[in-house]
Please model this.
Amino acid sequence: VVPFLEGFGVVPDNVNSWGDDARPPELQFEIDGHREMGKPSHHTWYAIIGRLNTGHGSHTRTWMVERRMAHVRALLYDPVREELGKEYDRYFINKPFPRLGAPPGTTARLQAWLSGLTEAIRFCA
Model:
């Protein structure tokens, strides 16, 4: 794990510790809109931008992925909820995951949930 992270400018002491003088990287997610795609049925795809700032004199790394809500639910929400267990509400109590069916406000709810995910990661959940 450590050699992999070093390739991104993140240098922890070991797999369990950032070290006394190390600052953990800052991770941020934001939604950059959504669009309807697909034939014959349309699905909503959300543009998710990720940013990683290692704070070690390197530039911020930025990437973008487009995912359907079903992908975000299966690949992020479900595993995070399972892993955090009872601690889940500590980070997400006022940031509920978007409802099924994409009612109005889904993009804002997803953005709020991603900010909760950022907090959970930042505070070593």
About this structure: The mean pLDDT is 84.
